[in-house]
Amino acid sequence: MAFSPDGTRLLSSSSIETKLWDAGTGQLIRTFKDEAPLTFSPDGTRVLSGSPEKKLKLRDGKSGQPVRTFNGHDDYVSAVTFSPDGSRVLSVGSNSVKLWDPRTGELIRAIEAHVAGFAVKFSSDGTRLLSGGQQTLKLWDAATDQLIRIFEEHPGTSSAHSVAISPDGTLVLSGTKLRDAASGQLIRAFEGEAGSVDSVAVASDNARLLSGGEDKTVKLWNAVTGQLIRIITGHEEAVRSVAFSPDDTRLLSGSADSTFKL
């Protein structure tokens, strides 16, 4: 699930299709025959999606018409994102992170990052890549592919299913752990999650965090103190996606119960 950059539209997805909604009225605008993961381009004019079919699809955000297909993954695509300036696309699959040119669909480079990759993000200035996978969370130089830091190693079979970088690039969030992006030091671990955390988000002021997971709830946290501000209930299955609106005034959650709530 995702907000458009201006906060006026929403993207939601199921196992067979993606839907574009008016965030103000709740009206369905358009249905795409694509699957999650998905995101808007920084200017809101394009919609990018990944799929278990080993490819990415770029569509016009208004008409829904296909613009380009990206081929090159050996397995399912777990996560996709644009660079902040929209000049690059980042995707992660079962065993590699791939960087693409969205204008041509050409593969720029591939990074053998994880045994199983689940999440990827650009830093706010586009110079760093954050990838999460089975038992590891890694920070990379976006220009050279050099591994800068392994932030944490998840014990046993735990994995970094969802990662977030604060808008100012100073904080890294993975599951219930908040770290300093420059030093890699653990700032805070948030207590109170009953089960795995499947999605996280950081507010633009760095003061609040969102988490959602297997306990079917959305939790709003104080990032400074670690205090749990609010537990939001209403979903009947695990929460798979959470997001702040661009102005931080609204919260969005999507669940395995086939609903999303604003």
Task: Tell me what you see in this structure.
With 262 residues, the chain is mainly β. The protein folds into two domains: 1-160, Methylamine Dehydrogenase, Chain H (7 Propeller); 161-262, TolB, C-terminal domain (Neuraminidase, 6 Propeller), CATH 2.120.10. The chain is built from no helices and 27 strands. The protein has strands at 2-3, 9-13, 18-22, 28-32, 38-40, 46-50, 55-60, 66-71, 77-82, 89-93, 97-100, 107-111, 117-122, 128-133, 136-141, 147-153, 163-165, 171-174, 177-180, 186-189, 197-202, 208-213, 218-222, 228-232, 239-244, 251-255, 260-261. The strands form seven sheets. A four-stranded antiparallel β-sheet has the order 1-2-3-4, with no helix packed on it. Strands 5-6-7-8 form a four-stranded antiparallel β-sheet, with no helix packed on it. Strand 17 and strand 18 form a beta hairpin. The N and C termini lie close together (11 Å).
Give a brief rundown of this model.
With 262 residues, the protein is mainly β. Helix content is 0%, strand content 50%. The protein has a four-stranded antiparallel beta sheet with strand order 1-2-3-4, with no helix packed on it. The protein has a four-stranded antiparallel beta sheet with strand order 5-6-7-8, with no helix packed on it.
